[in-house]
Amino acid sequence: MSGELYERLIKDLDAAGARYRLIEHAPEGRTELVSALRGHDVAHAAKCLIVMVKIGKKVTRHVLAVVPGDARLDLQAVKALLQGTYASFAGRERAEELAGSVSGTMLPFSYHPGLEVIADPALLKGAELFFNAARLDRSIALATDDYLRIAGPRVAPITSPTPTAIH
After folding, report:
1. How far apart are CA 70 and CA 82, in angstroms?
2. Which of 14, 81, 105, 116 is in Cβ range 3.0-4.6 Å of 101 for a Cys bridge?
3. Rounded Cα–Cα distance for residues 4 and 64 (Å)
4. Residue 159 near residue 72 (C-beta atoms within 8 A)
5. What is the residue range of 105's domain?
6. What is the count of structural domains for the chain?
């Protein structure tokens, strides 16, 4: 499953003329740890989470929320954005089915027609964003403007404010 998705992603990035680098590293899917292996600030990691949003009693939508690695996803913000009545993280099995890869390797791109991509603007502040490339042992550093052009995410604030430390 993930091997085919990796190949498809690389072909799509090449076809779109994207500026990216491949980064080989020890197998790791946890954002903080893989960011250290890749050698970048965790804020530049694209953390990908699948959210299930109920709209009324009969409609369920799924969203691929892409947020900075050091941020917390605000489920209420996603729910409000989609005018939903309920939002929660999708179950692991459903999330992996929609993403096409296992947890920890999900791409910030959707290859599923029922999965809308929403990216938090804070993630788009850096020149590059980093993510596991549908595998635990290889990541991609992708130019942020190429990500926006190719993925075409809806850009909206979907993270919780980080509490400020009191000194």
Report:
1. 24
2. 105
3. 20
4. yes
5. 2-155
6. 1
- The reply to whether 161 falls in a domain is no
Residue 6 lies in a domain: yes
Decide if 25 is inside a domain: yes
* Distances, alpha carbon 19 to alpha carbons 66, 84, 87, 115, 132, in Å: 20, 36, 35, 25, 16
Domain membership of residue 33 (yes or no) is yes
Domain containing residue 105: CATH number: 3.90.960.10
Percent of the chain at pLDDT > 90 equals: 92
Strand blocks (E) in 57-97: 59-68, 86-89
pLDDT per residue over 108-148, tens digit each?
999 999 999 999 999 999 999 999 999 999 999 999 999 99
Identify whether the C-beta of residue 40 lies closer than 8 Å to the C-beta of residue 47: no
Q: How far is CA 8 from the centre of its chain?
A: 17
